[in-house]
Amino acid sequence: DAGVIQSPRHEVTEMGQEVTLRCKPISGHNSLFWYRQTMMRGLELLIYFNNNVPIDDSGMPEDRFSAKMPNASFSTLKIQPSEPRDSAVYFCASSLGRFNQPQHFGDGTRLSIL
Amino acid sequence: GENVEQHPSTLSVQEGDSAVIKCTYSDSASNYFPWYKQELGKGPQLIIDIRSNVGEKKDQRIAVTLNKTAKHFSLHITETQPEDSAVYFCAASIRDSGYSTLTFGKGTMLLVSP
User: Fold this and answer.
1) Which of B46, B95, B98 lies at the smallest CB-CB distance from A102?
2) B17 neighbors B11 (Cβ within 8 angstroms)
3) What residues of chain B lie within 8 A of the CB of A91, using their CB?
4) What is the pLDDT of residues A72-90, one digit of tens each?
């Protein structure tokens, strides 16, 4: 079975540029989560969707961050404009259902902002 | 909100020894506790989980115990092997407004020496 698929795996760009991260959840899963991982702060939940609807975006650090889920098989996380402090590994995860279901993670996008 | 503390941050053992990682959580309403293993360059992978109506769960060499009164849970790995070397994360889930999300500990780097 295909797991959660994220692209690109690595992204290096200059400060001020727009960055778009992509995620394809596991087929049939109706909850999708975006996380950011850094050494200092660990794994932080940025936003999550249920049935393509954003439920809670309180973890999104700034207005420069936005996320969309136009359909059940695709989601994007966009940073515009990007800053060096946005450098981190970004993970997407999906799960079946709303309550206490195992979350399955993709292999992440390592983002470096120069 | 929920706060999850994880100890130790690093753990070195000899092959064949047991390893124990401990976590505490702050919100007594938490009711689902998964453990994840993260290898270098990969996303976290669920290895075992436990729900609040169960005190212990075992899967081959891995076991998890939960003490709801004390608000702590632990991961036990027996007969460790070099391939167990990775970063392990505990998490606690809480239901909020009809949905549940995970709060992660900061991780434990486990090194198993041959």
Assistant:
1) B46
2) no
3) 43-44
4) 999 999 999 999 999 999 9
